[in-house]
Amino acid sequence: MTAAAIGATTGGTGGSGRARRGLATAVGAHGQLLCTLLTGALLCFATFFAQGGWNPLNPAPMTALEIMLTLGSGVVVAGALALAPAERRVSGLWPLGLLLAFTALTAISVVWSVQPDESWQDAGRMIACSALFAAALVLASSAPGGWSALLGAVVLAAVAVCGYALATKVFPDSLDARDVYARLRAPYDYWNAIGLTAAMGAIACLWLGARRSGHALLSALAYPAMGLLLLTLLLAYSRGSLAALAIGGALWLCVVPLRLRGTALLIGGGLGAALVVAWDFSRPALNSDNVALAQRVDAGHQLGVLTVAMLAGLTLAGILVGFLTARRPPSRAARRRAGAVLLSLPVIAAIAFAGLLAHSHRGLFGSVSHGVSALTDPNAPVPKNTPGRLAAIGSVRARYWNEALEIFADHKALGAGAASYGTARQRYRTATLDVRHAHGFLVQTLSDLGLVGLALALALLAAWLAAAARATRPLDGRLARGAARGVRSAYTPERVGLLTLLCLVVTFGVHSLVDWTWYVPGDACVALLCAGWLAGRGPLAATAPGAAGMRDAAAEGPALAQTVVLPPPHESAEQARGAGRRGPRLPSARELGSTRVAAIAAVLVAALLGAWTQWQPLRSFEASNTALALLPRDPHGALASAQSAVSRDPLSTQALLTLATVQRSLGESAAARATLQRAVRLQPSNPQTWVALGEYDLAANDPQAAVGELRAAVFLNPQTVAPEAVIATNPGLLAVRNEYLLALRETAPSGGTAVPLKSANGVPRRAAAAAPQAALPARAGAAARSRSPRAAP
Question: To 5 degrees, how large is the angle CA 327–CA 331–CA 332?
Answer without folding.
Answer: 145
